[in-house]
Design brief:
The chain is mainly alpha-helical. The chain is 53% helix and 11% strand. It is built from eight helices and five strands. The radius of gyration is 26 Å and the shape is elongated.
Length: 219
Amino acid sequence: MTTEVGNMENQATDTPSRAGVTDAAAFAVHESHVLDRQLEAVFMIADEPQGLVHLATAVGRPITEVAQSVARLVADFDGVTAPDGTSTVRRGFELREVAGGWRIYVRATHDELVTDFVLTQNPSRLSQAALETLAVIAYKQPISRGQVASIRAVSVDSVVRTLLGRGLITEAFTDSETGAITYATTDLLLTQLGINSLAELPHLSPLLDGGTDGFEDLL
């Protein structure tokens, strides 16, 4: 009788402990899912590769957790089968490590399709903001997105994405000191303008009304 009572007491003591472990595990899984979705949202709007330190600062989580989350997203987008046997559909985009950071790119197998869509199936006119940004890049290339924003005094994130999507500009190289991606125009722009080289672009001075104040560095 004494033994049975003791066993019942031990079971009563163990139950809260086991429940606590289960709750902690469930909370950890929930936090992992939350972090994955946060990073996914950041990657969807990022114009440049994002380093782990920058990402960890943005979401307020340890670098190790962010690195684990990035690995989960890579596997998720790639449709890799997890140890528990579950897997996702291989996406048309991938999370790729470039220049010391991570960024979402169209999967290489769909490059031709996307290029055709952008250039022939979606021929809408460029906005005034896009045209102005394209002009700055054309005259100042290679130039970073931050430098373009400084010249135009407005954010150019979405505009640069549009120009990249249209194939009018391309990523020239990554600055070794700042890590910023610099942009340059493509041959497609020359074709659209009907010129053979950038040297044929008109000089800005005759086009400016009232002098060149504020535009000296663009000439």
